[in-house]
Amino acid sequence: MRAGRPDIPALVAGLALLALGGVLLLNALDAIDLGFGLFAPLACAATGAILLANGLSRSG
Amino acid sequence: METHDTQPNPEPTEPTEPTEPQPPRRRLTRSREDRVVAGVAAGFARYFNIDPVITRIAAVALAFVGGAGLLLYLAALLLMPSDEGEAVVEASRDHRNRALVIAGVVGLLLVAWPFLLGGGFLLAGIGIPLALLVGTGVLVWWLVSGEGPSGDPGEVARRAALGVGVLILCWVVFFGGAFAAAAGPDWLVPALVIASGAAILAGAFLKPIRWLVLPAVALALAGGLVAAAGIDVEGGMGKREYRPASALDLRDRYELGVGELVVDMRNADLPAGDVPLELDLGIGDARVIVPEGVCVATSADVGVGNVRTFGQDTGGVDVDYEDSPYASPGTTRVLLDAEVGVGAVRVEEIDGGFPVDNTACENTGDRASG
């Protein structure tokens, strides 16, 4: 059990994956119509957030 | 008479530190003691302070690059002096002979130039991808473990290899996930991505499981690409060609997972009025061949690829093509509704031919693509 602050890169990666998985699930349930116009920026944002959190945690 | 010595006093000088002995200047010479052929490879190894086996392997490898290694070896043999002597070129005391040897070396290099150039391209073709692979491996391992590209070359190579291993794992997960998304139930990949995200999120508070991040991202990207392209491989694989002999043989819907789907309606003797035709293709080409004098209204949805019909060629990602012309009274109008994940939709009047105008249609009606 970790005490204190959570691991920020893992936190960001987990949230980003939950968001991606949520969008994919909504598409599978036909709640949204997922196209590249939506998925491409979403995937870039999620990947970028993970990389950013990873890099900032190392530099800090 | 008193005389004075007029010799000048020397200027007081600052005490100087003892100078360190200068290391002997390195010379690139052919090794006599460690030679296999003429000592060129061993000489290079000694000059760069590396194991001569490496330079010998490089020389042998270069020999297979258009013969460049042999020519370079010969040039080095002529130009590099041996340990105790001079180069072959310098050894020629006769200026005429020396000029001839230099001219010979220059001529040799000119002859070898095409081989060297080809070898350079080949080396670039191997070296650049290899360098990219090592760099990617180091980057991936840095992301996974936090160990950067520092340390001795062996340690960097180890990290690059581990990173490449993780990368291969990610590719396996990517393609496996893509197949599962295209062939399995729709909820499977989203559920796996959500479960991975939840596990990583919980690990952030308990014990971080960073190794899971990259495979989970690969899985999410695979699922997303398949979903965005609308790829569905349930219809099987290969080439399916349908030639309905009459309008009764014409199905409402044709489906294929991966491959080429052809519906040739030239012998179908289609009735006047609207004839619906639905195509569903995961990856590949969907071709509809219609007889002359038939109007075609097209509604096509292509994830990545293009739609080519009657002088129109629309391509890109998320292609949504609509062409709804009106047909003259008594004319057949095919209502084509095509959905392709990755590939193309083509409407042809003859096999392999693309008519410019849909002359059977009364006018162009509504046409839109996006």
Mean pLDDT of chain A: 87
Main sheet record of chain B: 7 strands, mixed
Strand content of chain A: under 5%
The structure class of chain B reads alpha/beta
Sheet with the most strands: spatial strand order of chain B: 1-2-3-6-4-5-7
> What ranges of chain B have pLDDT less than 50 throughout 5 or more consecutive residues?
1-13
Helical content of chain A (DSSP H or I, runs of 4+): over 70%
What does this structure look like?
The complex is a heterodimer of chains A (60) and B (370). Chain A is built from two helices and no strands. The model of chain A has no long low-confidence stretch (mean pLDDT 87). Helices cover 75% and strands 0% of the residues of chain A. Chain A is mainly alpha-helical and 60 residues long. Chain B has 370 residues and is of the alpha/beta class. In chain B, a hairpin with a 2-residue loop joins strand 4 (295-309) and strand 5 (312-327). In chain B, helix 1 packs across helix 2, helix 3 (68-79) crosses helix 5 (95-145) and helix 5 crosses helix 6 (153-183). Chain B is elongated, with a radius of gyration of 37 Å. Residues 1-13 of chain B have low confidence and may be disordered.
List keywords for this structure.
heterodimer; A: 60 residues; mainly alpha; 75% helix; B: 370 residues; alpha/beta; 8 helices; 7 strands
Quickly describe the structure.
The complex is a heterodimer of chains A (60) and B (370). By secondary structure, chain A is mostly helical. Chain A contains two helices and no strands.
Present the secondary structure layout.
The complex is a heterodimer of chains A (60) and B (370).
Chain A: H1 8-28, H2 36-59
Helix pairs in contact in A: 1-2
Chain B: H1 40-48, H2 52-63, H3 68-79, H4 88-91, H5 95-145, H6 153-183, H7 188-205, H8 213-229, E1 237-242, E2 253-264, E3 273-289, E4 295-309, E5 312-327, E6 332-348, E7 361-369
Parallel strand pairs in B: 1-2, 2-3, 3-6, 4-6
Antiparallel strand pairs in B: 4-5, 5-7
